[in-house]
Amino acid sequence: MPKHILVTGPSRSGKSEWAETLANKVSKPVIYVATAQENPDDPEWQQRIEKHLLRRPSHWQTLSVPHDLSITIEQAKPPSCLLVDSLGTWVANELEQDEESWQAIASQLLTTVQKASVDLIFVAEETGWGVVPAYPLGRLFRDRLGHLTRQLGTIVDTTYLVTGGHVLNLSLLGEPLINIE
To answer: Pfam families given for it (predicted)?
Structure first.
């Protein structure tokens, strides 16, 4: 049985490092699914991407997947482990979608995860712990990512929260909410 894992937490919490640690523990080929799009005009963004790249073992394959996440997961073949970093960036890449299109994309991802025949490790940012964004696009992003993370958390095998320098296994400590609005 493939394992499906969600690693969530705030910015700079270590969630990507924890996800990479988990991926290193599997005895399967790891495919790092990078959802970030490079931007040569933004040196700070490029440094972030480079930092993630340098942490990865050289034998890991890297795929750049800013949009077609469901297709990438569907096409993966056992015994692979896909590490998707990150859902927040992927949601941001899809913000131009109208609500109906977004719902179809999100539903397709969730269905694909449930049917996936490979190990999956998702990294997702927690954005709803702060002030409600003052602008519509910020609220749309926060709401879409929060809702998707909540739905994903109920269908994966294990959900981790990384915060304050600690990793918490929420699947052992908590109880999933079944009714999702």
So the answer is: CobU
Q: Which domains does the chain have, with CATH numbers?
A: 26-137+151-163 (3.40.50.300)
Annotated catalytic residues are 52
Exposed, middle or buried: residue 161 (CB in 10 Å: 0-12, 13-18, 19+)?
A: buried
Residue 85 marked ligand-binding: yes
51 known ligand binder: no
Determine if residue 42 is labeled as part of a ligand binding site: no
Helices (H) and strands (E) in the chain, counts: 7, 7
Q: For residue range 116-174, list pLDDT tens digits in order.
A: 999 999 999 999 888 899 999 999 999 999 999 999 999 999 999 999 889 999 999 98
